């Protein structure tokens, strides 16, 4: 993968050396990434962890789910959804709403619908 292999320009997300060849990952981590983490007063994290953090933050913030896979270079939106589904805001809202509904049922029981049921309920309470 280099400029001679077909790219007219190196995409901005690809780190290459002066010959257009990919940088050595160990060299990048040791000479650049870990020093940047230290300077920013962050714990050492893998570069791939930053990628996951980026995707998680975007999805949790409710950004367009169709944009995220393009930025991550996923072949399809399915990969992104399968990986980050649990971070979709609508997913969490639904779970919280269900809990609210359960609480409402317990706090506000259904009214007794007829006199026969009401008599049976009163009898059960007094005995």
The string of secondary-structure elements, in order, is: HHHHHH
- Mind telling me the C-alpha Rg? 28 Å
User: Mean pLDDT across all residues, rounded?
Assistant: 75
Largest sheet: none
Separation of the first and last Cα atoms: 84 Å
Q: Which shape, going by the Cα principal axes?
A: flat
Determine the fraction of residues in helical runs and give it as a percent range: 55-70%
Number of strands: 0
Strand content: under 5%
Give unreliable regions as ranges. Answer: none
Question: What structural category characterises the helix and strand content?
Answer: mainly alpha
How many DSSP helices?
6
How does this model look, in words?
The protein has a domain at 1-44. The chain has 127 residues and is mainly α. Helices cover 58% and strands 0% of the residues. The model has no long low-confidence stretch (mean pLDDT 75). The longest helix has 19 residues, at 89-107. The protein has helices spanning 25-39, 47-60, 67-72, 77-84, 89-107, 115-126. The relative contact order is 0.05.
Concise account of the structure shown:
The chain contains six helices and no strands.
